Amino acid sequence: MTEQEFWKIVDGAVVNPATPFFLEDHYLSYWNAINALGDQKMSEFATMHETLVARAIESDLAQVVVLVQKDFDMANLEAFASGLISRGQQVYYNCLTDPQTTLLSITRPLLLSKCAAFQFVPAMIRAERQGAEGPSNS
């Protein structure tokens, strides 16, 4: 999967961050977009996600996240990076180039630290497809 294909899937799953149930609606949209992929593409999606999380962590993001969330635990940086990715390509790259301005300008930035589940969607779907328990996407 190319990075362009990855972002097309992610950007297609983005919902309006001003909606009352934004995080739940966004997660369900993200789940459904990834669930539509075949097993091979889903594995490639997961690999690209890991690459982009690592890229975010290697950037200056960690130094700026504390501006948004004063009690931020740096151990949660992967969850924050996953949340950042889930907001789409433009937000992700804007944040890597100008994290302070981007984080202070996006709607509901505190929710980014509550997005750990986004990084596990492919594994959870895989488990569900194999008959294990997973969240319902209905």
Could you characterize the architecture of this molecule?
With 138 residues, the protein is mainly α. It is built from eight helices and no strands.
Shape: globular
- What is the gyration radius calculated from CA atoms? 14 Å
* Count of alpha and pi helical runs: 8
Q: Give the strand content.
A: under 5%
How many β strands by DSSP? 0
- Name the helicity range: 55-70%
Outline of the structure:
It contains eight helices and no strands. By secondary structure, the protein is an all-alpha fold.
Core attributes:
globular, 138 residues
Please describe the topology of this protein.
Blueprint: H1 3-13, H2 22-35, H3 39-58, H4 61-68, H5 77-86, H6 89-97, H7 99-105, H8 121-129
Helix pairs in contact: 1-2, 3-5, 3-8, 4-7, 6-7
